[in-house]
Amino acid sequence: MTATGDVLNQVIPSLVQLARRPGGVLLRLAGASIALLALLGAGYVRAGDGASSWIPLALAALLAVPVVLLAVRRERLQARTAELAAHRTISGASGASGASGASGASGASGASGASRGPGRAGPGTGTDGVVVIASGSTGDPRGTSQPDPRWDPLRDEMDVLTAAMAENSLRTARFFPRIEAAQRAGLLAAGGPVNAPYLRDDLRITIAALVGTVVAIPLAALGSIVTAILLL
Question: Could you tell me which residues belong to the region Disordered (predicted)?
């Protein structure tokens, strides 16, 4: 994983945790508004006659679609970011294996990784759930003990960022093309959906559900007022 992927895996879970309470408030407001409209709509269906009496109830069902979709996507995103935060992976040189063992890493895996010596160190898992992947003495992520003069971490990082910027410039989607391009660029910079599970779902659908949820609150309130007036 690149340094950019490490930064994304630290920033995104923090942002998701920060938006957890406002998102819950938004969903509760939307759910209460739609529930009130559905209740009044059901009463209007009993009191009225004809196809027009089903309009409030149908409107409530339509407004509930983005709210339910946003709730599902929100729970899935929180679960994936929580799992990512619990199993963070840090790549480093073989010296990091000894450092992790000295800083409180435990378990047979960490002990065996420290006893193998440089160049053959294995992954160690600390008590805080951080997985440390040790590499060779030169810092080569391939784990080779011999230095490779062709490997340059800074050049690799710049290549990944350049490829991500090029991916971001390709906007071929018809629906929210900027968001779709940014998601592809983020996946490329993070190293794929395995390293960035929060980018597996299409962000365009999530954002559309968010907009639909925000719009559903005033529409449901207005529909409830109109339906209540018709019931008088």
Answer: 92-154
Query: Tokens for 136?
Result: 């060779």
Burial (CB count within 10 angstroms: exposed 0-12, middle 13-18, buried 19+), residue 207: middle
Task: Supply the DSSP symbol for 196.
Answer: -
Number of Cβ within 10 Å of residue 189's Cβ equals 25
pLDDT tens-digit profile of 110-159? 434 434 444 444 444 444 444 444 444 444 444 555 555 565 566 666 76
Structure tokens at 176: 């929210």
| DSSP secondary structure letters along 133-165 | EE--TT--TT--SS--TT--HHHHHHHHHHHHH
- Rounded distance between C-alpha atoms, residue 43 and residue 232, angstroms: 11
| DSSP-assigned states of every residue in 88-149 | -EEEE-THHHHHHHHTT--SHHHHHHHHS-TTS---EE-TTS-EEEE--TT--TT--SS--T
At 48, give phi and psi (nearest 5°): -95, 180
pLDDT tens string 33-75: 999 999 999 998 888 777 888 999 999 999 999 999 999 999 9
Residue 97's Cα: distance from chain center in Å?
29
Identify the helix (H) or strand (E) that includes residue 59: helix 55-86
Q: How far apart are CA 160 and CA 42, in angstroms?
A: 56
Angle in degrees, 0-180, between the axes of helices 177-190 and 3-18, rounded to the nearest 10: 120
